[in-house]
Amino acid sequence: MTDEAVRQENDRPDARPLGEVDILWLNGGLGCDGESVAMTGATQPSVEDLVLGALPGLPRVRLHNPFLAYENGEEFLSLFRRAAEGSLEPFILVVEGSIPDEGNKAEGYWASFGADALTGQPITTNEWVDRLAPRAWAVMAVGTCAAYGGIHAMQGNPTGAMGLADYLGRDWKSKAGIPVVNVPGCPTMPDNITETLLYLLYQAAARAPMIPLDESLRPTWLFTETVHEGCDRGGYYEQAQFAEEYGSRHCIVKLGCWGPVVQCNVGKRGWMAGVGGCPNVGGICIGCTMPGFPDKFMPFMDQPPGSLLSSHAVMTYGRAIHALRRFTQDSLNKEPEWRRRKVSSKQ
Ligand code: SF4
Ligand code: SF4
Prior knowledge:
about 350 residues; Rossmann fold
């Protein structure tokens, strides 16, 4: 997109460049704090890059994450209270953990975050979402639990757990006209969290157009290609070299890898500082970035039904091609004849 197009895209009353932004991180959903932990390993950009102003052109950022904060108790919670009252704007709301159905039982609550100053009663996570989401400049759901319900929303689902967009409504938009931005993963790959935040911050600074999202509300540049398309083991797949047990360097599709149909960039990008990424280091892809996770990928560790056909098809030519490549390899491993020293007949 050209600079002019970016300017026009942002030429709306709600798109004035923001000089500073608070990031309110609500980890009170049903979750494990996995994204808060994962984010500390981000390198491109790192959390420090975002909050210390290392990147030019960004608004000043203040991150309020209960897992990382020095403040605790009321000192920490007061920021959230101010935001809920409308006296702390603009802010980006980040939600971690799935949203329960608090109306599906006679008493009690499923999830909460802090307590009411007057009554001392817990404030449910749902109440926080109801109070904060309408005031937020943008809302991010990090982790598959917050994005689509995740493990908590498995069949049976006693808590009625759901993703944030299912709770707020698929057509919901923030004050800046941005849908819920889902950054799934179990946990989410560290750089995917910080890079999405970075994009939103550039958008807040009116230096980037509307964030591009797919139908499942994931950033398109992170979640379009499949794991398989960037996997270190792709060459083995193509040659029909399939591992029968763990510890092999070959493709692990027969051990249960769903990489060929799962949209996730860790094959290409690695996990931390470019290193790792599930199948690259021997772990089957279980589809944790997908809305159908986990139910549609179970039982884990069984060969995916669809791959029976594709791996069989590859076998018909992969092994033959592999054998033929050996001949070519042998030839390529020899220097051309004319490079050898000629023994003169006169000597
Ligand atoms: Fe594809 Fe998985 Fe095999 Fe990698 S390990 S090549 S993602 S099937
Ligand atoms: Fe999840 Fe598969 Fe991506 Fe690993 S490779 S993070 S299991 S979607």
